Fold this protein.
Amino acid sequence: MGHIRFRSAVSPLRRAAVLDAAAPAAQSVTVDRLVAERRPVDPVHCLRPAVFAEQARHFVRAFPGDVLYAVKCNPEPAVLRALYEGGIRHFDAASPGEIRLIRQLFSDAVIHYMHPVKSRTAIREAYFQYGVRDFVLDSAEELVKLFQETDNATDLGLIVRLALPKGSAVYDLSGKFGAAEAEAVGLLRAARLMAPRIGLSFHVGSQMLDPAAYEAALARAGAVLQQADVVIDMLDVGGGFPVSYPGVTPPPLADFMAAIERGVARLALPAHCRLWCEPGRALVAPGASLVVQVLLRRGDMLFVNDGVYGALSDAGAPGFRFPCRLIRPDGADDGAALKGFGLFGPTCDSADRMAGPFELPNDIGEGDWIEIGQLGAYGSALRTAFNGFDRAEVAEVADAPMLATPGYADWAMVA
């Protein structure tokens, strides 16, 4: 039998050369300078470590409990290190790969396995090799599996995920995971008999713009807890905290925290119960941008060197709009009026299309560069190798976010 080898289809992001060897890149390099001096022909992911760290600091200060960063949102090590610098010590992992990554980077991190359906091998690896003790479940079968694969461990934290009805979030997450109320009641009672720590979790959906959704979900969780008549040790309000995009300005972060605090106050939880949340997008979206180059202009469509199979997946079928700007190192802006453009990615697939509109100067053309912002969330994480277009660079820059979100740092002042 041939030797089995693991293979990753996606080329890792390549570090762009440091422009100034006398100073750390993140302290000295701007996006404009990087483009002017390197004139990149491949896409460049521009990371802002200071932005990641400051977003984390604000969120940790605002949330009255433990903040679990959702690793799937952006697992780039430089991003994780910046979040750690900002105070993140808890991580929401959903796979063995994410667990290994976090443990390699941070020996003192608390890792929570938040995927409700896990392979037996993954459970054993998480528990015995990496010290994971908290596991989410939403079925009786998963509960049995957890005890079988941890050799009937007596130190587990078991969190039951409660299903929610479809809500108003941009990305609905109600269709795949979560136990119905009656099932959740039974699971909580069973877990209480078997584990020293139990909890209840839910998720209102990604990019939730309505703070009241958290209050409604907490009321549903309260009804389940009342029926189960058990004492819980953790209550996880999930993620979904939104950020700004062109044409979308969410309520301030404080409004979401106030709604959560009101909802929790009505539950009369025991004093020792820890409140958890799982932000991803809210921590990392503003901290990265993508620089692409125009390959061809055809009317109001621009062919660029990245697309929906690269870092711009959310600009495809989901229809997200992103802030953008023209970068033209050889000439100053001549004041051309802005025009709404669509983008075509580099692959031969006609579905590699991003409608936008991307507001750019009307005289843009081949050879110009475009910076596209708010791509710290799910941009690099969703890259593929389709059609062979998997080459990209990553650089750390000192720029402020291209678009701020209410309730975080005043980046005009910081910059």
In short: The longest strand covers residues 288-298. The chain has twelve helices and 17 strands. Residues 1 and 7 are 18 Å apart (CA to CA). The longest helix spans residues 212-228.
